[in-house]
Design a protein that fits this description.
This protein is mostly helical. Helices cover about 75% and strands about 0% of the residues. It has a two-stranded antiparallel ribbon.
Length: about 350
C-alpha cells in the first residue's frame, strides 16, 4: 500500500547462489555476491487495472468526499467562531452565545462524520487489498497499524475524537474547549495530505504536504465558514426579530468577507502549486484521467470564485434590507452547492494516481 492508499505493483528478480563444498561461506559470499533488482512491470495487467478502478470507484470516492466534507465543516466551525462571531460585537452577547452553542452542535455532527468516514475508508481499503495476490490475509488492523496510510487515518480518527469531545463541552459555553478543538482541527487539516497524493509525491514532499494542508484550511475557512454563516448565524439573527436584525446580519457578513477573500486566495495559490507538482505537462489536463478530473474541479472552483466575487461586490452592500438578505441567501445557496460538487470531484480525484 503506497502512502496515498493506492495499490502498489512491481516485481523483484533475484538469484540464489549455491555454496561450493570446498569453499567457506565467506569465500562464496565475497566472490559471487547476490544481487536484487526491482523491475517494474511495463504495463498494467487487467487485474491491476481493476484494482486501480476500485480505488476510484463510486463507494471509495464518495467516502473520501464525506471525509473531506466533515473536515471542512469542523475547521469551518472553529474559524467561524473565532474569526467571525467573536469579532461581530454588534450582534449582541446573547446572540453570540446562541450562535456559539449551535456551532458546537454542528461541530459534533461533523466530527462524527469524519470518524465514520475514516473507518469506512479503512474497510474499503482493506477489502481492495484483499483482492490483490498474496494480500488475502491483510486485515483492517494490519492496514491501520502497519502502513503510513493507516497512520494518517489513525491520526485523523484521534483528532476527530478530540474535536468531538471539545465541541461537546463547548455546547455548554465552556470557552477553553474551543482551544482544544482548534488544536485538534489543525491536526485534521494535515491528515488529508498524509493520506493522499502529497505524501506519495517523490519530489518536494514536505512542500507539497504543507501546501495541501493550507489548501484544506483555506477551503474550510472559505466554504465551511460560509456554511456556518448562512446555516447558523443568519437564521439565528433573523429569528431574534427586532428592527436591527438586518444591521446584525450585515455586521456578521461584513466580518466574514475579509476572511473569505484571504482563504480563497490561499485555495487558488495552493491549488496551482499542487497542479504544478502533479502534472508534468499542461496537456495532462486533457490527456490523462487525473488531469481531466482536475480540470473539472478547476472549472467549478472558478465558478465558485465568481459567485463569491458577485456576493462581495453586488449583494453585500445591499444587506441592510430584507430583500438584500434574501438575495444573499439565494446566491450563497448556489455557492455552497458548487462547493458540494467540488468536494465530490475531490473524492474522485484523490482516487486517481497522478
Amino acid at each position: 500500500v503506497s502512502s496515498d492508499g493506492h495499490p502498489s505493483h512491481g516485481s523483484f528478480t533475484f538469484e540464489v547462489i549455491s555454496l561450493q563444498p570446498e569453499s567457506g561461506l565467506a569465500a562464496a559470499v565475497s566472490t559471487t555476491p547476490a544481487t536484487t533488482t526491482r523491475t517494474p512491470t511495463a504495463s498494467s495487467t487487467p487485474q491491476e487495472t481493476a484494482q486501480e478502478d476500485e480505488a476510484s470507484s463510486v463507494s471509495n470516492s464518495l467516502t473520501r468526499a464525506l471525509s473531506f466534507a466533515g473536515i471542512l465543516v469542523v475547521i469551518g466551525v472553529i474559524v467561524f467562531n473565532i474569526l467571525v462571531v467573536a469579532r461581530s460585537s454588534r450582534i449582541g452577547s446573547e446572540l453570540v452565545w446562541r450562535i456559539e452553542s449551535r456551532a458546537a452542535i454542528v461541530g459534533v455532527a461533523a466530527s462524527v462524520l469524519v470518524i465514520a468516514a475514516a473507518f469506512g475508508r479503512i474497510f474499503l481499503e482493506s477489502r481492495m487489498m484483499n483482492d490483490m495476490p498474496g494480500m488475502q490475509t491483510m486485515s483492517m488492523t494490519d492496514m491501520t497499524m502497519h502502513t503510513r496510510w493507516g497512520f494518517a487515518l489513525r491520526l485523523e480518527i484521534i483528532a476527530a475524537f478530540l474535536t468531538l469531545l471539545a465541541f461537546s463541552i463547548a455546547i455548554r459555553r465552556v470557552h477553553f474547549a474551543w482551544l482544544i478543538a482548534s488544536v485538534s482541527a489543525g491536526v485534521l487539516a494535515v491528515t488529508p495530505a498524509l493520506a493522499g497524493h502529497a505524501a506519495a509525491t517523490p519530489r518536494f514532499t514536505s512542500l507539497v504536504v504543507l501546501t495541501d494542508a493550507l489548501h484544506v484550511f483555506g477551503a474550510s475557512s472559505w466554504l465551511g465558514n460560509l456554511a456556518c454563516v448562512m446555516l447558523i448565524g443568519v437564521p439565528i439573527i433573523l429569528r431574534s426579530g427586532g428592527e436591527e436584525r438586518w444591521q446584525k446580519v450585515a455586521a456578521l457578513v461584513n466580518t466574514f468577507s475579509p476572511v473569505a477573500l484571504a482563504s480563497a486566495s490561499v485555495v487558488v495559490l495552493s491549488g496551482l502549486i499542487a497542479s504544478w507538482v502533479h502534472l508534468e505537462h499542461i496537456s495532462d489536463l486533457w490527456t490523462t484521467a487525473y488531469g481531466q478530473m482536475l480540470f473539472r474541479k478547476l472549472v467549478f472552483v472558478a465558478l465558485t470564485v465568481v459567485i463569491g466575487a458577485y456576493n462581495f461586490r453586488r449583494v453585500q452592500p445591499r444587506l441592510l434590507s430584507e430583500g438584500g438578505t434574501a438575495r444573499l441567501r439565494r446566491a450563497t445557496t448556489v455557492e455552497l452547492g458548487l462547493g458540494v460538487i467540488i468536494l465530490i470531484f475531490t473524492g474522485f480525484l484523490t482516487g486517481i494516481a497522478p
